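INFO batch 0412 | record 1 of 1 | parsing
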Amino acid sequence: MTGAVSSLWRRRSNTTDTTTEPLWIRLALIGTALVFLALFLVVPLVAVFTEAFARGADIYWAAITEPDAWHAIKLTLLAAAIAVPLNLVFGLAAAWSITKFQFRGKQALITLIDLPFAVSPVVAGLIYVLLFGAQSWLGPWLSDNNINIIFAVPGIVLATVFVTFPFIARELIPLMEEQGTSYEEASLTLGANGWQTFWRVTLPSIKWGLLYGIILCNARAMGEFGAVSVVSGHIRGQTNTLPLHIEILYNEYQFAAAFAAASLLAGLALITLLVKSLLEWQHKRDRDKSIRAALQQT
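INFO prediction complete | emitting tokens
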């Protein structure tokens, strides 16, 4: 074990020393990556913020605080606030069952988790329209009981949940498969019950993967357009999320307001990436600290 820890630390410390490619190849690869990042990420983001503030801060502030924009912002945050916890519960349950138990249909469950990655969000929205729309077999019953799903907030939440539910599960499954079940089995052997094992053994070991999944799920939920566009009905001031509000403003040639709303959405995405980077840095720091502590004990 000591030799394995020492070897791992040496590999982490001497990664740059083992690179055998010529300097010009490394510079070419790094340069290519930087050029692509500049052209396809940095320049568009700079253009969005430049256009957003092109007519001054007063116009920008007015664009993001007018009633329709403010409602779109609140609805976007509401949909994410509901979808992310639901996906958190599903992701934990799915990852736990897939990695800790053997059961018939396990591979089918893994395939279904990946379904939103393969299905177009527009198709997902149409599925909910077929299930809960006025012409569906549930439509008359929903209408008689005054339950609105399509062209209402519940439909937006359902569509958001559908397109985002793989993110947390897909972050946790490889991590929990790598860790195995030895720690949980040891905890149960020592007398802990299932909940104690989960809270004191499993959850601390997967906390970083769980946080990454939550961050990615939240970012996807706030930026979802296709599925939400189908089920929302584009009712201004009622069912428009922020991406839909941006589209309407742009189609109406209100470019200043559209770019102002777009900059807000881009800002939320950048904050999400910043938080993710900070978590990754903290994770790396904790891991290196654990390796150093293990080396010092030898």
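INFO post-check: The longest helix spans residues 255-296.
INFO record closed
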